[in-house]
Specification:
- This protein is mainly alpha-helical and about 525 residues long.
- It has 16 helices and 2 strands.
- Strands 1-2 form a two-stranded antiparallel sheet.
- The protein is globular and about 100 Å long.
Length: about 525
């Protein structure tokens, strides 16, 4: 009896505890409900009306998420096109950024009084190149036609089913049917190359050419001269069919720009005071800091220029080409430093800069077809050549303020011939297709065949560019006159052509007019004397 009594007592105690616990939970729950109801009542009528709608939307979303079937993902082929297009676009952006490098380099190498003019030319030239290449240049260069010129695809029109490649391609740009990216990507990448060719000319004709003449010449160069010779090589023209190879443009871009720069400098004549009594008078650049920055920007941009020419996200090709490109730049800079030190007596910074660029230009044609060891030698020779080339042109009284002819023309020719010397031959590297690519070079165990073909290409492109450039310059000289007046040149093209100065804020302002005392707003002293900062 005692045991039963104790069990009953324990059951009563347990029941009380459960009741108390449940009561507390119920009370807490009721409190939360009351608080929630109170919060709803505090809302405005419009917000209260939105609550049921929000519940319906949430329930609807949940139903749709459960009811719909999973979407089919992109295919492997679609992913490849997307990746290839992304890489081509990034490479194009890098090459476009080279315009900033040219701006800095050329401005730094020129005198302070011409800084605005140099910057303006480099800035506007890409805008002009865009219009000219879209309207006529791309069609002349890549449109279907004959071995000499393209006859289709002007204004980016005509049939095209890119990114289809090979036999599946149906359009008017058959020369680019190997690139599996949309037509817009092909055009964008080729456009930034065309702009580079025109920019090369700017430095060689700096400090004395009329602004309007440079604009017109740039339009003609990109729209006609560059496009025609480019068609011969990259547009499936007669040089391409004869076995000429130029992977990223030592001839197509750099030599063409260099030949045009040479003719521009020759037709304009030297700057006032450059050559006196058979002596070369140095007219040093005003800011080597920004010139060095420009060189580094160009070095970076070349990693889009050369590896981007694969026009596919091929990891083996991109990395190999980046390494050969970088190696040539490095050895070019080292060789130019040593050569200038021995030949000129000092390690001239301008020669170091041009040596790096010489190595980059020199390896551009062959970067996909050679070993890293060959790139070492090509850059080394380019760095030596550029130093002697600068002094050679000075002896000919051809005044090139930035050394564009030495870097882009001389080393562009050297780089094109280097294909015929060090190419490893077909079948070694996979990225240019089975059986494709240049024949084995002379110094790689091959014969003279590829070297001879490269030489023919160099001479042909050079001859055509010189001819067309001369025609353009002669017409401009006869109509508008291509050189500024002596007074404008002495005063500076910033004032004469643009009516402003690049560094006016750094001048001592001694009067309320904002100009130094004794100086007029056009940079000439009130007594009529020329300023002493020429």
């Amino acid at each position: 009896m005692m045991f039963k009594f104790m069990n009953k007592q324990k059951s009563k105690i347990k029941s009380r505890r459960l009741f108390a616990r449940n009561y507390a939970k119920t009370t807490q729950s009721n409190s939360k409900v009351k608080t929630f109801n109170l919060a709803i009542k505090r809302l405005s009528p419009s917000w209260q009306a939105c609550l049921p709608l929000a519940c319906v939307i949430v329930l609807g979303w949940g139903y749709v998420a459960v009811a719909q079937t999973p979407a089919t993902g992109p295919t492997t082929a679609e992913l490849k096109v997307a990746l290839d297009t992304l890489w081509v676009a990034i490479a194009a952006f890098l090459v476009f950024f080279m315009n900033a490098g040219f701006c800095m380099l050329e401005t730094g190498f020129c005198r302070q009084k011409n800084a605005v003019n140099v910057l303006a030319k480099n800035l506007i030239v890409f805008a002009l190149a865009t219009v000219a290449f879209w309207a006529i240049g791309f069609g002349l260069m890549f449109g279907d036609g004959n071995g000499f010129i393209g006859l289709n695809g002007f204004f980016l029109g005509g049939a095209d089913n890119s990114p289809a490649t090979g036999d599946a391609y149906q359009g008017v740009y058959s020369a680019l049917n190997w690139a599996g990216v949309p037509l817009a990507a092909k055009f964008l990448f080729q456009l930034v190359f065309a702009g580079t060719a025109a920019t090369i000319v700017s430095g060689a004709v700096a400090e004395r050419i009329k602004f309007v003449d440079f604009l017109i010449f740039s339009l003609l160069l990109v729209g006609i001269a560059y496009a025609i010779t480019g068609h011969w090589i990259w547009g499936g023209g007669w040089l391409a069919k004869s076995g000429f190879w130029d992977f990223a443009g030592s001839t197509v871009v750099h030599s063409v720009g260099g030949w045009a720069a040479l003719m521009g400098a020759a037709f304009l004549g030297p700057r006032i005071g450059k050559y006196q009594d058979k002596q070369v008078i140095a007219l040093p650049g005003h800011n080597m800091s920004i010139a060095t920055l420009g060189c580094l920007i160009l070095w970076l941009g070349w990693f889009g220029f050369n590896p981007g020419s694969v026009m596919a996200a091929d990891p083996g090709a991109i990395t190999h080409i980046a390494l050969t490109t970088n190696m040539a730049a490095a050895t070019g800079g080292i060789a130019a430093t040593a050569t200038a030190w021995l030949y000129l007596g000092k390690p001239d910074l301008s020669m170091i800069i041009n040596g790096i660029l010489a190595g980059l230009v020199g390896v551009t044609a062959s970067c996909a077809y050679i070993s890293i060891g060959s790139a070492f030698i090509i850059g080394l020779i380019a760095g030596i050549i550029v130093v002697f080339s600068v002094t050679f042109f000075d002896k000919l009284n051809i005044d090139d303020p930035v050394g564009a002819t030495s870097v882009h023309l001389v080393c562009g020719v050297w780089g094109t011939l280097a294909v015929g010397l060090w190419s490893v031959g077909p079948g070694v590297y996979s990225w240019y297709g089975d059986g494709l690519g240049p024949a084995k070079g002379l110094l790689a165990g091959g014969g003279f065949g590829q070297l001879f073909t490269q030489l023919i290409g160099v001479l042909s492109v050079g001859g055509m560019t010189v001819l067309l450039s001369s025609i353009f310059l002669l017409i401009l000289k006869a109509t508008l006159g291509i050189r500024v007046s002596r007074e404008e040149e002495l005063e500076g093209l910033d004032i004469g052509e643009h009516g402003m100065e690049a560094y006016s804020g750094f001048l001592k302002e001694a009067d309320a007019s904002g100009f130094p005392e004794g100086r007029s707003s056009r940079g000439i002293s009130q007594s009529g004397d020329l300023p002493n900062t020429l």
